[in-house]
Specification:
Largest sheet: 5 strands, parallel
Distance between the termini: 24 Å
Strand order of the largest sheet: 2-1-3-4-5
Shape: elongated
Structural class: alpha/beta
Helix content: 25-40%
Number of strands: 11
Oligomer: single chain
Radius of gyration: 18 Å
Order of helices and strands: EHEHEHEHEHEEEEHHHEE
Strand content: 15-25%
């Protein structure tokens, strides 16, 4: 899942972004409304975390432009104004959700994940295929009932492949969906991450290489559905709580 965090207060923006990265999300940042629109027009983001009171271009106008230009992102608006009227105005501008400052990081994460699920055709929060159970809400993964200790990038790559439901994703596709904007397309990031992920998934092989095209999940078992027997707890360690203050080198 790709997220753009737009917040002019640098300390808060970086805390939010780092927390989301620890929870296996690809995050880019912007400090003003003009930079936010530039990034939104150049790349695809599942969720936009948007501070309402921004320099350069007010968050309200950014939200209006998202709606006007039909940019494919869900908007979580952040603001210090928490009255009913303010919330109604924000939602009326086209925001999908509204969170007032100060907030708990766990709530922010839950709202971002919920919006991210709505950015695509509906899929359950737990994905299952070929013995793999991936709980996107709890950031936990298992295979045949055995816990998988995945890094955040390994988790995100596996999630992207599962959500593709058997379709082939190229290295470039995975870079766009999993890594931050400044990751070069000719890096070995995808190949290295896939190699480690395959080793952790074990046998029989789950991720297939389609020569000259990319990667896909082996065609076995249901594409997605409610999983059972998934151990609780995040796969790569929970992000700490936060109270806010106001490549392509070709597949192998």
């Amino acid at each position: 899942m790709r997220v753009l965090v737009v917040e002019d207060e640098e300390f808060l923006r970086e805390m939010i972004a780092e927390g989301l990265r620890r929870d296996a999300l690809a995050v880019d940042e912007a400090g003003d409304g003009l930079e936010a629109l530039r990034r939104l027009r150049l790349g695809e983001y599942d969720v936009l975390v948007l501070d309402r009171d921004l320099p350069g271009l007010h968050g309200d106008e950014v939200c209006r432009q998202v709606v006007r230009e039909r940019l494919l992102t869900r908007v979580l608006m952040l603001t210090a104004s928490g009255t009913v009227r303010d919330r109604v105005e924000g939602l009326g501008l086209g925001a999908d959700d509204y969170l007032t400052k100060p907030f708990a990081y766990d709530e922010l994460l839950a709202r971002v994940l919920a919006l991210g699920r709505r950015a695509h055709p509906a899929l359950p929060p737990v994905l299952e295929r070929a013995g793999i159970a991936l709980d996107t809400a709890r950031r936990a993964a298992s295979r045949d009932g055995h816990r998988l200790a995945l890094s955040r990038k390994e988790f995100a790559v596996l999630e992207a492949l599962l959500r593709a439901e058997g379709a082939v994703l190229s290295s470039d596709d995975l870079i766009e969906r999993v890594w931050e904007e400044d990751t070069g397309y000719r890096t070995n990031a995808v190949r290295v991450t896939l190699s480690k992920l395959r080793a952790k998934l074990g046998e029989p092989p789950l991720i297939e290489t389609v020569p000259g095209e990319g990667y896909r999940i082996a065609a076995a078992g249901p594409a997605a559905g409610p999983a059972s027997g998934l151990e609780s707890g995040p796969a790569s360690g929970p992000a700490s709580g936060l109270a806010a203050p106001g490549q392509s080198s070709g597949p192998r």
